[in-house]
Design a protein that fits this description.
By secondary structure, this protein is α+β, with helices and mostly antiparallel strands. It contains nine helices and ten strands. Helix 4 packs across helix 5. The radius of gyration is 23 Å and the shape is elongated.
Length: 300
């Protein structure tokens, strides 16, 4: 796996101009297409502006337009460093830490992190197949009182894990069959083998067209041959330890964004390139008002 140290980061992105140049090259790998000239033309950087001007007609192109950097007064070096911090740790980084390292306000640091997290959701990835584990857990709520299912203030989360593969985690209103089985049907290919615990909500799994194996945790059985849910439970363990140790408390309103972040990090754990480069490829996407990506480059 590629190593990418903080020294290398600072060498690649010493100032805002270097960040803007990287963003321009990433969005327009074949050169900037000038709509006025009708072809790819040479552009030069404008002084003190996040813009490039066409060498022939003088029309301007703004690489940050449509990205999370658009209309942000925060330096690009701070944005890029925030991505580097988030992508370089398994446990995540708190907004308070970014506030201390960059010297920005907490409000600014919090907004930067959540703007980045919004782009990490992988809804368009392919369905799960093969050996798949499904489980549910509860996050947040009050520390005292009843634990587990039905505990006051806790948020239910459903998860699907493909063994030696990807994971998906979604906030759900409850853990009843009417909620969990449609998620399974939408995300897991038929004829896959699904492993769950003994909760009654999974009783209809076979009727959905899956091979179903259950692990009876209530009887102190956690592994029986290939039947176990250790993959998804290990993900829950890492998630909860990170939320408790780094963020301390996460509101139900924004929990899904944290789930997307940790799922994305888990799903790309075997990437050969450094996680920072994987994250930057997503964070630097352009999007229109409907949220659809608008990739740069020459028109087809």
């Amino acid at each position: 796996m590629e190593r990418y140290t903080v020294q290398a980061f600072r060498k690649d992105f010493p100032d805002d101009d270097a960040c803007l140049e990287w963003l321009k090259n990433h969005l327009y790998p074949e050169g900037i297409f000038c709509g006025k000239c009708g072809k790819v033309t040479r552009h030069y950087k404008l002084t003190n502006r996040r813009a490039y001007s066409c060498d022939l007609c003088g029309s301007h192109v703004y690489p940050t337009a449509g990205t999370i950097f658009h209309k942000s007064c925060t330096p690009l070096t701070s944005w890029f460093y925030a991505v580097y911090l988030m992508s370089s740790t398994r446990c995540g980084v708190s907004a308070k830490q970014l506030q201390r390292e960059l010297g920005v306000t907490y409000k600014t640091a919090w907004r930067m992190f959540h703007q980045i997290r919004k782009l990490l959701r992988e809804d368009e990835s392919g369905p799960f197949s093969g050996s798949v584990e499904m489980d549910e857990t509860y996050i947040g709520g009050k520390r005292h009182g009843k634990r587990g299912r039905g505990a006051e203030g806790k948020t239910a989360v459903a998860g699907i894990a493909e063994r030696e593969g990807r994971v998906l985690a979604r906030v759900v209103p409850d853990v009843k069959a009417r909620t969990l089985l449609p998620i399974m049907k939408a995300k897991v290919l038929p004829r896959s083998t699904v492993y769950t615990d003994e909760m009654g909500s999974y009783q209809g799994t076979r009727r959905q067209g899956y091979t179903h194996h259950r692990v009876h945790h209530a009887q102190q059985v956690y592994v029986l041959g290939d039947a176990h849910t250790n993959t998804i439970e290990n993900f829950w363990s890492q998630l909860k330890r990170s939320l408790d140790g780094t963020h301390h408390a996460v509101s139900a309103k924004y929990l899904q964004r944290y789930l997307d972040e940790f799922s994305f990090r888990y799903n790309h754990r075997r990437d050969l390139r450094h996680m920072f480069r994987t994250w930057m490829a997503l964070v630097c996407r352009r999007a229109d008002q409907t949220g659809h990506p608008l990739w740069g480059g020459t028109p087809s």
